[in-house]
Specification:
- With 79 residues, this protein is mostly beta strands.
- The chain is built from 1 helix and 5 strands.
- The chain is 5% helix and 39% strand.
- Strands 1-2-3-5-4 form a 5-stranded antiparallel beta sheet, with no helix packed on it.
């Protein structure tokens, strides 16, 4: 389940980059390396951080030797 963000960078929009973490928006249907469904946002961090989505989401988590990777999937449940 390797994920090479640099290989798909041209298909993502950089939203924020703090040096320790990055947040990208998926603009081109890139598949999540965990579930193979297109993800909405991709968050990567090498530090302990708080992640507060602005909407209800499901997420998949993966990791590399250096960073934690979080892939969000919007939900449209009414509950």
């Amino acid at each position: 389940m390797p994920f090479d963000e640099h290989a798909v960078r041209h298909r993502l929009k950089l939203v924020t980059d703090t040096g320790a973490s990055t947040l990208y928006e998926n603009r081109d249907g890139v598949a999540c390396p965990v579930c193979d469904e297109p993800f909405d946002e991709f968050y990567a961090t090498s530090a302990a951080e708080s992640f507060r989505p602005t909407q209800r989401v499901e997420f998949c988590v993966a990791h590399t030797a250096e960073r934690l990777l979080l892939f969000t999937h919007e939900t449209d449940r009414g509950d």
